[in-house]
Amino acid sequence: MTDAAELLLRVREFLAAHPPATTERSDFLSARFDAGLAWVHYPAGLGGLGAARSLQAVVDAELEAAGAPDNDPRRIGIGLGMAAPTILAYGTEEQKRRFLRPLWVGEEVWCQLFSEPGAGSDLAALGTRAVRDGADGDWIVNGQKVWTSSAHLARWAILIARTDPDAPKHRGITYFLCDMTDPGVEVRPLRQITGEAEFNEVFLTDVRIPDDRRLGPVGEGWKVAQTTLMNERVSIGGMRLPREGGMIGPVARTWRDRPELRTHELHQRLLTLWVEAEVARLTGERLRQQLAAGQPGPEGSGMKLGFARLNQEISGLEVELRGGEGLLYDDWTMRRPELVDFTGRDAGYRYLRSKGNSIEGGTSEVLLNIVAERVLGLPPEPRNDKDVPWKDLAR
To answer: Hey, which residues are catalytic here?
Structure first.
């Protein structure tokens, strides 16, 4: 199915059979997935219809107009934006059918076990080990992961671990799907500058993972992880926003509602950042249209770079605009939230939380290298450890 008119008819027939006002939310979402209206570009039977990705907007607009419930995408963003496209690209048919439906419906929350205390920007240096228990047995995993969003809520995790320490660091990694309820998985909160603990550190002690939860071939986890990372950067930096959506919205509203706070210098800065935010929004729309024709590329790194810089500059302007009010903070209670709410908190929260935008999802320094090398075609940085066995690297 590639015709928008046919797709619109299908959506209306679905709504007639499942009226949002009288259908239980979970039943509605499950039926939507089964009808192929979850991700229209996914294959039939996996939440899609094999249609063009661009037609998803037709479905979403019609369902929204009808008052249909969504699947709370901010709460399950890691599953939707990172786990799902990776499972679709590398999973077996059994894995796709087992995981994609409860992931999209929101029955199972996902987290990402990638970064480690000694392997953040240099992720390929990770040291979490996965050892085979017998020639064809389960994998026994030991190690520590850090900065894990939603680990305290998650049922499943996407995990990369080292399976061959004799291979160079990029070649001895394997990708797994880890059950967060298994024995040996311990989640500890990491309290942040905001007072909250949306992040966690995760300790893995003799965690047993069946081989049928391996995603992709043994030793090719870095290749699989690149699909995850590229989708992560698109989902962070390329989210769909209306005009004045995101961080620029609260600042613009304050400017309009509080004329006594205005100065000429702040006016010039606000105009500049408003234009940059709108350019970023339209660039994100163009990127999504490019995605409709294929897989995400390194361009998502550029979007994520811009997202981090803009958020930090806009939140700094907001604090200055509000003067003494900008130094207030609404709640320093230690909480473990289900999602990050940039616009639902005060200016102080936005200012502090945005500092993490240039770290999470790949540091800005790493993303600058990606843009330089893969987008602009500049010579790569020297990497003397590229062919050195992982076990021989200095640590």
So the answer is: 232
